[in-house]
Amino acid sequence: NYGHTRVAAGQNINVEYVSANPTGPLHLGHTRGAVVGDVLCNILVAVGYDVTREYYINDAGGQIDQLARSLHWRYRQALGESLDTMPEGLYPGDYLIAPAQDLAARDGVKWQHLPEEQWLSPMASEAIAAMMTLIKNDLQALGVQHNVFSSQAAMLANNGMQACIDILKTQNLYYEGVLPPPKGIDPADWKPEILPLFRASQFGDDEDRALQKSDGSWTYFASDMPYMLDKFRRGFTEQVIFLGADHIGYVKRMQDASTALSNGQVHLDIKINQLVNLFKDGQPFKMSKRAGTFVTARDLIDEIGKDALRFMMLTRKNDAVFDFDLSLALEQSKDNPLFYVQYAHARCHSVLRHAQTLGYTPDDWKQADTSLLVEDAELAMIKVLAGWPKLLEGAALNHEPHRLTFYLGEIAQNFHTLWQKGRENTQMRFIEAEKGASAESRRTCARLTLIQAVTMVIANGLHLLGVTPVEEM
Known about the structure:
alpha/beta, five-stranded parallel beta sheet, three-stranded antiparallel beta sheet
């Protein structure tokens, strides 16, 4: 537990991450969000937070209707209808084939010839359940778990929007009015409409924001307000949300709405996960097997393994575009960040195993005189290790889990430097002599203490990343 602190003991925090629409398996971008969010939660726990890991299911809106139509099309196909070309706008991946076959086997022709209004809602429920099972299985394979799954549809159905509007009205933050034409639209081509509006401009936003569209449906931003209110009412005044790059324009208005609905009591940190571009051997790479149009998390896990995928996803800050090279993730060289760190950990264990064949025991390096560690490279290593608690605290409080991979790379670099110095100078070797009373033996015990510390910190860091440390390579 070295490095773990209680700096945030007694504090609750809600971290919402992944929250992929239940319209298919997790794709490359979702995978980044899943890893970043999960590792942040591990780090927050390590400094004392009581963390709730939450997934917000976007199970309302037009995309769910299209998902239902897609399942119905696959269902008719499973019943033997000759359907060759899927209608435009439906979800083309083959991940709906198995649920459709199960539905056909269970219900037969029950839904086949009914009008859409009779099967749309049941098909939506079937499809959402199937997709959430698929998503949860993918998350489990990635080593990601959530405590809570919240439904957008349930929030909206439970009078959620009216509760939000009532709160906004009491603060004079709700009114009906007309917005100016969007940027780039000729005013002559703009048809003004009276719509319900949120006074976002009072919080420093560029303009007030519409809560409802002209067709009467809630805007994308407004439909999330009941969920914001629900989290506040559950007692979460400290919240983190991870969103994809396509949501960057919503950050300010979401923070403003959260502030309004909680009367300023909620601190909401919204983190953007930028795009991930997939490469192999330096060339753009497509490898989707099931999705039809995108790379899935399961494809990546099958290709490089969970540990490599988790570590590599944190070798860039989450708000930076990431060019992810699959070949590098499999390469056994110092250019592969995970291999470089794991190799340092395995080398440490190799030294400790060899020391025991020469008569040394763990008690020897637990009781060693560490004042004998005086070489510049040894002192540099000690300073890096001593910085682990503060590094962990900073990563937690700033919500920046990538700091761990950067730090582990620094430890590995320092350790490999020490290893190389031992090859160049026999007096710098970790093991100078067999166990005994000599000065060389005493220095060996001190260096074994340092090696043990390196293994502990690397292992602690990898465990927080959800990566299994290896002792042999």
